[in-house]
Amino acid sequence: MARNIQSLERAAAMLRLLGGGERRLGLSDIASSLGLAKGTAHGILRTLQQEGFVEQEPASGRYQLGAELLRLGTTYLDVHELRARALVWTDDLARSSGESVHLGVLHQRGVLIVHHVFRPDDSRQVLEVGAMQPLHSTALGKVLSAFDPVAHSEVLEAERKSFTDRTISDLEGFEGVLDLTRARGYAADVEETWEGVASIAAPIHDRRRMPVGAVGVTGAVERLCRDGELRPELIAAVRDCARAVSRDLGAARF
Amino acid sequence: MTDDAHTAGPFIAAIDQGTTSSRCIVFDRDGRIVSVDQKEHEQIFPKPGWVEHDANEIWTNVQEVVAGAIQKAGITRDDIKAIGITNQRETTLLWDKNTGEPVHNAIVWQDTRTDTLCKELGRNVGQDRFRRETGLPLASYFAGPKARWLLDNVEGLRERAEAGDILFGTMDTWVIWNLTGGVDGGKHYTDVTNASRTMLMNLHTLEWDPKIAESIGVPLSMLPEIRSSAEVYGEVTGGPLGELLGGIPVASALGDQQAALFGQTCFAEGEAKSTYGTGTFMLMNTGDKIINSYSGLLTTVGYRIGNDAPVYALEGSIAVTGSLVQWMRDQMGLISTAAEIETLASSVEDNGGAYFVPAFSGLFAPYWRSDARGVIAGLTRYVTKAHLARAVLEATAWQTREITDAMTKDSGVELAALKVDGGMTSNNLLMQTLSDFLDAPVVRPMVAETTCLGAAYAAGLAVGFWTNTDDLRANWRRAAEWTPNMDAEKRDREYKSWLKAVERSMGWLEDSSVEE
Predict the structure, then answer these.
(1) Are the C-beta atoms of B112 and B49 separated by less than 8 Å?
(2) Over 70: is that where the pLDDT of A72 sits?
(3) Is the backbone of residue A208 left (phi > 0), alpha (psi -120 to 50) or beta?
C-alpha cells in the first residue's frame, strides 16, 4: 500500500477537531491536541485558511471551519442561471460576429447545448437548445475537455468517433490539442465534426475559477476562416464574451 | 464579422425615465448599444397605497445619466443627432411655470389614492363613463384624476392654476420642458401616447376633450400641447446639459410600453409584443382602427410619426408574472434564484394536474375582478414542488393566452407571431410553453432594450437619421424562435382546466371588503 501524505492526514485531523458544533480553537489548543509543533500546525492552518476551509476570527485569533466547506458538494451552477447571465453577452457576440452562438455544459459524456442565439441574418433557423454535441471534435467539447477534469476523464474513456477525415481521434494527437487549448485559452473545430462548418469556443469560469461551461460561434468555414486561418477578430470576440460572462458570474478578471 | 464601426457614429441617445430609475442609452445606426448609464431614484411611500417620486431628483438624475452615457461612449455633441424620450406612463406632476418648482411630489401610476375619486367620477354610469372617448376605464392609474386630486388637496393650488401659473405634465412633459430651457422658454408638450393615458384626450380627435376635462375637474389651460411621438420638439437649451449638448434636437416621446412596441418594430396591423417583467404588458398594433374593447382591454395610441396618421393599439396587462417566480423564491423558498424555477419545472413532464392562478391582488385583463384571490387547484398527493414550479410557468403562459384571445375577439385579427422581451425571456421552458399554449411562434429579438430602442428609433426618424420604418425593420434581428409543439386536443383540455381554476379564484373576497 502506498504511503499516505502526512500533512494531508494532519489537515484532515484539524478539520475533524474544528468540526462538530460551534467550535473555535486557538493555535496552541490545536497543536497540543494533535501533538504537533506550533509552527507545523500553523503552516497547515494557514494553507487551509487560504483555501477557505478554515477561517480565523479576527478578534480572538481562534480558528473555525470556513464557508468553503459548506459549499463543497452542495452547490453547482444552475444551467438556467448560466443562461440568464449569458443572455446579453451572447446576443452581443452574435451581433458583432454575424454568426450563431452556442453555450454548452458537460452532460452525460457530451456537450449539452443550454443556450443558442441565431445567426443574425433573418434566415430560418431552428433552436438547438437541448441538443448534444460530441466532446472530442467540437470547439465547445474541446474547451470543456481541456479545462474540466471530469470532462477530460470522460472523453478519454469514450469512443472518439471520426466524423470527417479531419477529426482527431488518436489519444496522443487529442491530448496535444487539449494542451494547445489550455495554452491558448480557446479551442477550434475546422470541419472536424461537420463538413463545411467551423467553430471557435472559450471557457466560462465561475467565482471559484471552476470551469462551468463553454461559449462559442459556429458558422460556414468560408466565413470563419481567412487564408486558411481562423480570423483573429472572431477569436477575440469569443474570448471577450467568455470573459464577460465569467465576470458576471463573479470570476476575477484574468 | 460585420464591421465594428459603431464607435464611429453618428448616434442617437435615448432617455428612459422609468419607475425605479432613469437611464440613458446611446445607439448606433444598426440599433446596437454603444453605452448605458443608469441611476435609481427614491420611492416615497407616504401612506399605504400611496407612491410618490421627487421630480427634482428625477430631473437631476436624467441630466447625470445623459452626461454619463455620452462620456462612457467617448463622444461629443457633434456625434449625437437627436435625443429621444420614453417614460413611466401616467405618473403625474404639477409645477409652477415661473419658478420651475414642482408644487408636490409626482404621483406615481401605482398610487391608489384616487380610487374613491374614480368611483365618484363614474357617477351612475360606472367605470366605463369615458371609455368610448378615451379608451380607458375609470381606474386609479390614469393621470387626469391624479391632477384633480392635487388641485383639491394642495392648498391654494386651484387658484394658482386658474391664474395660469401651473403646468401639468406626465414625465415626458417634465423632461421635455426642462431639456428645452425650463423657465426660459421650455416647450410645454406631451406626445399622443402619453396623452392617451391621461383620460383627458379624445382618441378620435387626438385633442384634449373639454367636456371630460371639465367633468374630471382639470382646467384645460394647464395642459400641455399634444404633439406626435416623433418630431423635433425643440433643442437642448440651458443648464449643465446645455453646455454639453446645447442645440441637439429633442425629437421623440413615447410611453414605455408603446416605445417597446416601436422598438420591436411592430409597425403592421396585427403585430404584437409582450414584455415579461414582474408583470406583463402586451400591446397589439390595430393600425388606424380605434377598437373599443368589450373584453377588458385598453384602447390606446400606439404611436404617431410626425404628420402621419396615428397608429392605435389594444393593450392587455397581467399583474403577476415574474413576481410569482419571486414569490416562489422569497416567500416559499422553493428555489434560490429565479432561474432555478426552470430547473425545478424541467424535472417533471407536466403539471401533475395542478393549476396556479396568481390573483394576488385580483384578476386583471380580461376579467378585472378585484374580489379574486390566488388559488392552487387540482392538488392531489401526487403533486410535488416540481409540478407547482411547472404550474407557475404555465400561469404566465395561460394568462398571455387569455389576453391574445381577448385581442382576437376585439380586433378580429389572429395573432401571427408574438414578439417577446423582458427578463423572463431567458426562460426557455416558459417560452416553449408560451408557444405551445398560443399555438403561434414566439420570437425574441437580439436587442433586449426594446424600450430605449423605440425612443431612439422615433427620434432618429424625426431627424432623418433613419429614412423610414423599413430601415428600422432591417435592424431587427431574431435571436431565437420557439415554435408550437403541442397536441391540439391536449391544449384545449388543459386550457379548460385553467379556466376552471380561474373561476375558482373569483368571489373570494366578500363585497364589503372589496370596497376597502
Answers:
(1) yes
(2) no
(3) alpha
Which residues are CB-neighbours of B46 under 8 A, at least 6 positions away? B52
Q: Which helix (H) or strand (E) holds A88?
A: helix A79-97
Q: What average pLDDT does range B382-400 have in this prediction?
A: 96
Q: In 3D, which of B167, B28, B52 has the Cα closest to residue B460?
A: B28
Which ipTM did the prediction report?
0.73
Half-sphere exposure of A176 (CA within 13 A, CB side): 6
Calculate ∠ Cα B10-B15-B17, nearest 5°.
175
| Chain-chain contact of A84 with B428 (C-beta, under 8 angstroms) | no
Place of cell 457576440: A93
CB contact under 8 A, A118 and B340: no
- How does DSSP assign B130-187, residue by residue? THHHHS--S-TTSHHHHHHHHHHHSTTHHHHHHTT-EEEEEHHHHHHHHHTTTTTT--
Cis upstream peptide for B366 (omega within 30°): yes
CA nearest to B119, candidates B134, B135, B139, B133:
B139
Query: Is the dihedral angle over the CA atoms A30, A31, A36, A38 positive or is it negative?
Result: positive
What pLDDT does residue B56 have? 96
Give strand pairing partners of B375.
B357
Other CB atoms closer than 10 Å to residue B325's CB: what's the count?
28
Half-sphere exposure in the Cβ direction for A220 (13 Å, CA): 5
Which of B32, B339, B446 lies at the smallest CB-CB distance from A80? B339
Distances (CA, A) of A145 to A77, A157, B154: 18, 12, 69
Which of B390, B442, B470, B478 has the most A C-beta neighbours within 10 Å, making it the best mutation to test the interface with A? B478
Q: In this complex, which of B2, B448, B478 lies closest to A118 when CB atoms are compared?
A: B478
What single letter denotes the amino acid at residue B64? E
Query: Are B313 and B288 contacting, i.e. CB atoms less than 8 angstroms apart?
Result: no
Buried b (16+ CB within 10 A) or exposed e, A187-199: bbbbbbbeeebbb
User: Among residues 52-81 of chain A, which lie with CB inside 8 Å of chain B?
Assistant: 78-81
Whole-angstrom distance, CA of residue A221 vs CA of residue B123: 71
Read off the pTM: 0.81
From the list A83, A117, A127, the residue facing B482 with the nearest CB is: A127
pLDDT at B454 over 70: yes
SS3 B507: coil
Compute the mean pLDDT over every residue in chain B, rounded to the nearest whole number.
Answer: 91
* Residues in chain B, overall count: 516
Q: What is the mean pLDDT of chain A?
A: 88
Sign of CA dihedral B462, B467, B469, B472: negative
Cis peptide before B310 (omega within 30 of 0): no
A1 confidence band (pLDDT: 50, 70, 90): low
In DSSP terms, which residues pair with B317 in a beta bridge? B281
Amino acid residing at B165:
D
Helix (H) or strand (E) holding B62: helix B55-73
